[in-house]
Design brief:
Largest sheet of chain B: 2 strands, antiparallel
Radius of gyration of chain A: 21 Å
Oligomer: heterodimer
Helix content of chain B: over 70%
Radius of gyration of chain B: 20 Å
Strand content of chain B: under 5%
Strand order of the largest sheet of chain B: 1-2
Structural class of chain B: mainly alpha
Shape of chain B: globular
Mean pLDDT of chain B: 77
Number of domains of chain B: 2
Mean pLDDT of chain A: 84
Number of helices of chain B: 10
Chain lengths: 341, 261
């Protein structure tokens, strides 16, 4: 029983992380799946969201900190909105430069901004505390839920052990609910928008820009809206991550975790399909976390095992591209109710 | 690039083990094994690129350019981690001794003998690439295919072969660049290629995508700007300088200096 509870607690932790990745995948799905915008700088928007939220809501700099700004201690929703706005502004800047040009330029510019952001996280200690990261980021409603937990535990001393263990982890359950609620809302918005005239224009642009612009659509504007919207969702995921992890530093947003895994998730799940994006996030994160659990049985050093895991994920990506390019769930070809299936 | 640099490291060890004499060439800090290792690593890296093209990229080529891009990002992660799996993430050294700069009598600048070799070899490779693109049939076919694939195909150019050559030459040059960077910096790491990605992209955009000579000029401009910038801002932001130049080019002259009209 005890070990089953341990597994359950791990699953909650797993689902929170996978849920945050699913939010990132939905953002990428709007950019790439719907509109065909190739963003390989996801980590940049993700990191900006996390740091914005951490600086808005976190504690003021302590005596050992290098940073001299931030720590306004504002409530969680303000952090989320701030994260969304700042990532949106950066996306607007990148989009303004590159969305009129060929698709290669957007790819290069996104990787560029992500690298510049990563360098800034590591070096601008007045803002980001550089390698020491930002600590003690408050989790929403944490203290009141913890109070509830301790009062339950003191008033019910005779409750069964497994109930006590589950209750003591109640905060994770709450955060899982929060992440899933946001994920659900984003899924709904995403599905509604792709079935709207706006979504159909995006898909038309993806398939053939010339045709879309001949049909009188302002291609640049639609691309910009899609790119900024996707980046905002990525920033929001960053905020969710920061408030759950409570501690962020530049290493949390390396290109491997911040960009590559998310691409593999979306492609595995099925780009252009919101359900596929979410499924891919859970499946690939399952494989990633599963290989971590298995690594204890391999006779290699920790760094070697880490390399093997990345090689495994990369091979999975290439195999999907070769054998099932549409992903687990392919895209729905017809998204209008008015057209006959 | 990192693959080439690490292959050279492995070959160096192999050649040393085979007993090829280590004696240094004149003032250089390395000898015959390094030169042999350089040539063999270039060949092996070119071969590896062709192999990856055959098993992966060729099947994906019909599905679209961006899919190819995604696949190549995956390959980059895989290669980097294969290197890391074998050699570990820490820096590796070709040779450990420190070489002192010597004054060139007439110019009054100090330079290490190794650096003269690097400049010379880089110039040689550029000259060879120029001759290849201008004088050989394959080189001309490559330029034609870069201008217009369909037109090149109907003129009877074997596009598949051109792509193969492009991979081989690109990978061999990247390997040479990695080894030269390793000689200059004294160490190589699995991440060295990733760290140079942004300056390389910036150089290509500055020069104009599709123009090899533009890339050359772009590379010089970006490299020099990065080094000069260290006089004013933190060295950590070298890639940031490349990015700022790139953004400026995209805003002012998106086709680059020598890009096609």
């Amino acid at each position: 029983m005890e070990s089953a509870i341990g597994v359950l607690n791990y699953l909650v932790f797993f689902a929170i992380t996978a849920g945050i990745y699913a939010v990132l995948c939905l953002g990428l799905n709007i950019q790439w799946g719907y509109t065909g915008l190739f963003n390989i700088g996801i980590a940049g928007f993700y990191a900006v969201g996390a740091y914005t939220s951490a600086l808005l809501c976190g504690p003021p700099p302590g005596p050992l900190d290098w940073r001299i700004v931030g720590g306004l201690g504002l409530p969680f929703p303000v952090g989320v909105v701030g994260a969304i706005l700042v990532s949106g502004i950066i996306a607007f800047f990148i989009g303004f430069i590159t969305l009129r040009l060929k698709e290669d330029y957007l790819a290069i510019a996104t990787i560029g901004i992500a690298e510049v952001i990563r360098l800034a996280l590591k070096n601008e200690s007045w803002l980001t505390n550089s390698v020491w990261g930002i600590k003690h980021i408050p989790s929403p409603l944490h203290s009141s839920i913890q109070r509830g937990i301790s009062s339950f535990l003191t008033t019910h001393p005779d409750a069964a052990a497994w109930i006590r263990i589950i209750i003591s982890k109640a905060y994770n359950w709450f955060y899982l609910g929060l992440v899933l609620a946001i994920l659900g809302a984003l899924y709904w918005v995403s599905e509604r928008s792709i079935r709207s005239p706006w979504g159909r224009v995006l898909r038309a642009i993806r398939e053939d820009e010339a045709v879309a612009s001949v049909a009188g659509k302002n291609v640049f504007r639609f691309k910009m809206q899609s790119f900024v919207l996707g980046a905002m969702i990525m920033g929001m995921a960053g905020s969710l991550y920061a408030h759950y992890a409570k501690f962020i530093d530049a290493n949390s947003f390396e290109p491997l975790y911040g960009t590559f895994l998310i691409w593999v998730m979306l492609i595995a799940g099925g780009s252009g399909n919101s359900r596929g994006a979410i499924l891919g996030a859970f499946v690939i994160w399952g494989i990633w976390a599963g290989t971590d659990l298995m690594s204890g049985y391999l006779a290699f050093s920790a760094t070697r095992v880490a390399s093997l895991r990345v090689i495994t994920i990369a091979i999975i990506l290439e195999l999907i591209l070769l054998l099932r390019p549409q992903g687990l769930l392919g895209e729905e070809k017809v998204v209008s109710k008015l057209m006959q299936k | 690039m990192a693959l080439g640099a690490f292959l050279a490291l492995a070959l160096l060890a192999l050649l040393n083990a085979l007993g090829v004499p280590q004696t240094a060439f004149g003032p250089l800090s390395f000898g015959l094994p390094m030169i042999l290792a350089l040539l063999m690593a270039m060949a092996f890296t070119g071969g590896a690129a062709i192999f990856i093209d055959r098993i992966l990229y060729r099947q994906l080529r019909k599905t679209g350019r961006i899919i190819l891009l995604i696949a190549s990002v995956g390959v980059a992660f895989a290669l980097r981690n294969i290197i890391q799996f074998i050699w570990g993430p820490l820096p590796q050294y070709y040779h450990e001794e420190i070489q002192l700069a010597r004054k060139i009598p007439l110019l009054g600048v100090k330079i290490k003998p190794d650096e003269v070799f690097i400049i010379g070899l880089a110039a040689f490779l550029v000259a060879m690439l120029h001759l290849f693109l201008q004088k050989t049939k394959t080189g001309k076919a490559m330029r034609a295919a870069s201008d217009n694939v369909e037109l090149a195909r109907v003129s009877g150019i074997n596009i598949d072969r051109v792509i193969l050559w492009t991979w081989a030459i690109g990978a061999a040059l990247a390997a040479a660049a990695g080894i030269l960077a390793g000689i200059e910096n004294k160490f190589i790491t699995p991440n060295m290629g990733w760290e140079m990605l942004l300056p390389i992209f910036a150089a290509v955009i500055l020069g104009g995508i599709g123009s090899p000579y533009g890339a050359l000029v772009g590379g010089m401009v970006i490299g020099l700007s990065e080094e000069v910038s260290t006089a004013f801002i933190s060295t950590a932001y070298k890639p940031g300088v490349a990015f700022v130049i790139m953004v400026a080019v995209l805003l002012i002259k998106p086709r680059g200096l020598f890009g096609a009209k």
